[in-house]
Design a protein that fits this description.
Blueprint: H1 4-7, H2 15-21, H3 24-34, H4 43-59, E1 64-69, E2 77-78, E3 81-82, E4 84-86, E5 92-94, H5 98-102, E6 103-104, E7 124-128, E8 135-139, E9 142-153, H6 162-182, E10 191-205, H7 206-210, H8 213-218, H9 243-258, E11 263-268, E12 274-279, E13 282-283, H10 284-304, E14 307-310, E15 324-332, H11 345-372, E16 394-395, H12 398-405, E17 419-421, E18 431-433, E19 444-446, E20 451-453, H13 463-487, H14 493-507, H15 520-529, H16 537-541, H17 547-555, H18 561-615, H19 621-653, H20 656-682, H21 695-698
Parallel strand pairs: 1-9, 16-19
Antiparallel strand pairs: 1-2, 1-3, 4-5, 6-7, 7-9, 8-9, 10-12, 10-13, 10-14, 10-15, 11-12, 15-20, 17-18, 19-20
Helix pairs in contact: 6-13, 9-10, 11-13, 11-14, 13-14, 18-19, 18-20, 19-20
This protein binds adenosine-5'-diphosphate (ADP) and magnesium ion.
């Protein structure tokens, strides 16, 4: 057995590979560009890097390269190009130039753009992002060198998730540096955003999954009775991992290690067949790419183990859904975590100023956070009794809340960091105690030395939520810095900051909530506080269009006004199309599966009832009643399918926003009605007549 340290990063063109394969001056220019140096890469360097990258990739079996990018579908995209070329004499050779490394023109005209380009001017370009290292996805007969890239239209309009993220990262890093300078940190060279995304997922037997059109086509079930044993006992949570799942996890981890991704934790989650992987945190742009690589690698390896990976936010009704807790903080070039409370008062003043920036930003722009997690799948999760509600609030924990409430008395000498807790068991050592208890119900929570955003959906790219979080925080940091600076004439920095933070504590009262966010009382309270509440996806997406939000995004150079509109439209269109596909799949499964099964059940029951009636003179009223129920369900389902057909016709005739609101209103209601009827039928159909594997079987791994 090879040790993970020996193969970690083998498939990544990382610093080690670059150092080995690049001339020293090229290596230095490239790493300086990667680490935020001012100088842009010139094309001579690109040629040298391309040649080294090609040789490295070919030595690992790669035959192709691809610019790997993040269109606005939440997934990644790639168009493979062969290294193989033939020269004018017919001699085969392997070619890859600097030009090809820097830019590619995949066209990609069918990817969503929200109307920012029409097909006749559809050219799309991808451009190399050297800040995220190239990597190889190996296959049995070769492999592909993937080059992380941004995706732009012919006129430079961004069409992807990465470009706005990179801009938001720049926005916050610049402002964080300014605040650090204000606090007298002279030697700091850079600030980076650090991110770790905890990935929840379901694993289902592939054979069973394949027999369910809803799982195959939608990634979630649209019909199905609840299993007799779901998550009532919570006995799956942190249980011993099933050997088949563990074997899968080990292989997935090994593949991810080779791709430079360190998976730190793995465990069973609350729902049956639900699990979680958490990586070691890293720089935000890289963490985003790594999460995409993690999702696709996990999907690929699952197939090899006869398993199907489900990343949907709500694959099964009533059973818990999957999220992706997005942990984030800021780190400076001395390795300090800027959200780490400290025993030094000077550092704590600075810590509170960064914290204050986030509180102020969320107070003003929490609707953007809500918009960033609005997706068709996440709608079934947010607001359920398992995930944070659709209201964006911040949880700070007792210790910090206390600090903020007592700013009138001045700064505390010390903010409790992890203290020691004596267990009172004399043979065990003392352990570290957290400074914040864990309220699991808040969407945005301080967890000791970082924030955790819990509303991200499991299938989402974290680029969307991160872009909004970082933009909001960047604005808040700038605001706090400005306010401190404007007071500096009269007082010293600590007093100026104290003064500003007192205001911030007051101004952020509305979004701070320490109680149980699942409590219906909180919804009432949030309404009284005037917080934005959007339960449905289209309502939440419309928050992008609020003039203040648009001004923020364009003001901080994250997205232009035109891009915001396009982004909104892309998302809304995705919502309408996704629900329409789900309706079509539901219709198909009921028409071709459930309805014929009901008839077979009626036929069997009918002949049994006839026989029974011929043996007995009277009675059998309950049985006869049951037959009526079955016939009634069939009749009602037929009627509802007709309604569904007409509804789908109707929404196709409407403008985008109108069809979205029709879907949210009548459409989802109709789907619920159909599902109830179908599930009632399923509960009466004999096992050998069931058209689809039931929840009872799906939610068990053998
Ligand atoms: P918990 O959610 O219980 O706090 P961990 O402390 O293991 O669990 O952290 C969960 C995730 O948060 C991991 O992916 C971890 O790498 C990430 N994380 C930890 N510290 C930071 C940080 N300073 N910045 C960003 N992410 C972090
Ligand atoms: Mg966590």
């Amino acid at each position: 057995m090879e040790r993970p340290t020996s193969y970690f990063g083998r498939h990544v063109f990382n610093e080690k590979a670059m150092r080995e394969r690049l001339p020293k001056d090229v290596f230095e220019q490239l790493t300086s560009a990667i680490n935020g140096g001012q100088q842009k890469l010139d094309s001579r360097i690109a040629d040298v890097v391309a040649a080294a990258m090609k040789e490295w990739a070919i030595s690992l079996g790669a035959t192709h390269y691809a610019h790997w990018f993040h269109p606005r579908t939440e997934l990644t995209a790639e168009k493979h190009m062969a290294f193989l070329s033939v020269d004018e004499r017919g001699t085969p050779l392997e070619a890859f130039t600097g030009g090809e490394l820097i830019q590619s023109e995949p066209d990609a005209s069918s990817l969503p753009s929200g109307g920012t380009r029409s097909t006749f001017e559809a050219r799309g370009y991808t451009a190399w992002d050297p800040t995220s290292p190239a990597f190889i996805i190996p296959t049995e007969n070769g492999g592909t060198l993937c080059i992380p890239s941004v995706f732009l239209s012919w006129d430079g309009t961004p069409l992807d998730m990465k470009t706005p993220l990179l801009k938001a990262i720049t926005a916050i890093e610049e402002r964080a540096m300014r605040m650090l300078r204000l606090f007298g940190n002279r030697g700091i060279r850079w600030v980076k955003v650090t991110v770790g995304a905890e990935q929840e997922f379901f694993l289902i037997d592939e054979e069973l999954a394949r027999r369910r059109p809803d799982l195959v086509l939608c990634g979630r079930t649209v019909i199905g009775c609840l299993p007799p044993k779901g998550q009532q006992l919570e006995d799956h949570y942190f249980g011993a991992i099933h050997p088949r799942v563990l074997a899968y996890m080990e292989e997935a981890e090994q593949e991810l290690h080779k791709l430079g991704i360190a998976i730190k934790t793995r465990h069973d989650e609350v729902a049956p067949c639900q699990f979680e992987f958490a990586p070691q945190f890293t720089e935000a742009n890289l963490a985003t790419d790594q999460n995409q690589i993690t999702m696709s690698t996990m999907k690929r390896i699952a197939r090899c183990h006869g398993l199907r990976l489900l990343l949907h936010e709500k694959p099964f009704a009533v059973i818990n859904g999957s999220g992706k807790h997005t942990n984030f903080s800021l780190m400076d070039s001395d390795g300090h975590n800027l959200l780490e409370p400290s025993t030094s008062q000077r550092r704590n003043v600075q810590f509170l100023a960064f914290l204050g920036g986030l509180l102020l930003g969320v107070s003003k722009y929490s609707s953007l956070l809500r918009a960033s997690v609005a997706s068709p799948g996440n709608m079934y999760r947010l607001g359920g009794n398992e995930a944070p509600p659709a209201i964006m609030s911040v949880y700070l924990g007792n210790a910090l809340t206390d600090v903020l409430n007592r700013l009138e008395e001045g700064f505390p000498d010390e903010i409790p960091t992890k203290g020691l807790m004596d267990l009172g068991l004399n043979k065990l050592p003392s352990i570290k105690k957290e400074n914040s208890d864990r309220n699991r119900t808040a969407p945005l929570a301080f967890t000791g030395n970082k924030f955790e955003f819990r509303a991200t959906g499991a299938s989402q790219s974290i680029a969307g939520p991160l872009t909004m979080l970082l933009t909001i925080w960047a604005w808040g940091i700038e605001e706090v810095t400005n306010r401190i600076e404007s007071r500096l004439g009269n007082t010293d920095i600590a007093d100026a900051t104290l003064d500003v933070l007192r205001d911030v504590a007051k101004e952020s009262m509305a979004i701070r909530f320490e109680g149980n966010c699942y409590d219906p009382e909180w919804h009432e309270e949030a309404r009284r506080r005037g917080l934005p509440i959007a339960n449905a996806t289209p309502e939440a997406l419309a928050y992008y269009l609020i003039p203040e939000n648009r001004d923020l995004l364009s003001g901080l150079n994250v997205m232009t006004d035109r891009e915001i509109t396009a982004y909104y439209e892309t998302r809304l269109e995705q919502y309408v199309k996704t629900v329409d596909i789900e309706m079509a799949v539901m219709d198909d499964m009921i028409r071709h599966g459930i309805l014929p099964s009901i008839s077979r059940q009626i036929t069997q029951e009918g002949s049994a009832l006839e026989k029974a009636a011929s043996l007995l003179d009277d009675g059998l009223e309950t049985w006869k009643g049951h037959m009526k129920t079955l016939c009634g369900i069939k009749e009602a389902l037929l009627q509802k399918l007709e309604e569904l057909k007409n509804f789908r016709k109707k929404i196709k005739m409407e403008e985008l926003e109108d069809s979205a609101s029709l879907i949210t209103g009548d459409g989802l209601k109709l789907m619920n009605e159909i599902r109830s009827l179908s599930d009632a039928a399923e509960s009466w159909i004999a096992d050998d007549l069931q058209p689809f594997p039931p929840y009872r079987d799906l939610l068990v791994i053998h």
